[in-house]
Amino acid sequence: MTACGCNRQTDELERQCPLCKEKSKNINFMAVKPVVKQDLQRFVQKDNYYICRNTNCDVVFFNEEENIVFLTRDIDMSADFSEVSKNNKHKCQKGCGGCSQKKGG
Q1: Which of 65, 82, 63 is nearest to 74 (CA)?
Q2: Phi, psi at residue 3, to the nearest 5°?
Q3: Domains in the chain: how many in total?
Q4: Are the beta carbons of 57 and 22 closer than 8 angstroms?
């Protein structure tokens, strides 16, 4: 448990990309689903995802728990990327900054 009392561990905020091994940041699955091609959206689980920011890597999003990887070819380039580009994490009101707790939760 973190200092704020939530269950989110700070080590959940970053993972190594399975391909390039660079640090990747946590992203909510709800930001992943709308930009993945429609025929692959069924594979997006309600779980932690990470976004690889290495522009030379083919991995865009990955989920270690279910071993799910979305590559550049899996992304719908006509999608609205505003949810991915903005800071879409719900900040913990207690201040840890890494919680995914919704406001009021």
Answers
A1: 63
A2: -60, -30
A3: 1
A4: yes
Domain that holds residue 27: 10-85
Which pair of structure tokens corresponds to residue 26? 């946590």
Q: What is the pLDDT, as a whole number, of residue 1?
A: 43
Residue (of 73, 76, 31) closest to 50 by Cα position: 31
Most confident listed range (5-19, 28-42, 90-104): 28-42
- CATH label of the domain that carries residue 44: 2.20.25.270
> What is the Cα–Cα distance from 5 to 72, expressed in whole angstroms?
37
pLDDT in tens, 12-38: 688 999 999 999 999 889 889 989 999
**Residue 1 belongs to a domain:** no
First vs last C-alpha separation in the chain: 16
CB 99 within 8 A of CB 1: no
- For residue 40, give the 3-state DSSP assignment: helix
**Is pLDDT of 2 > 60?**
no
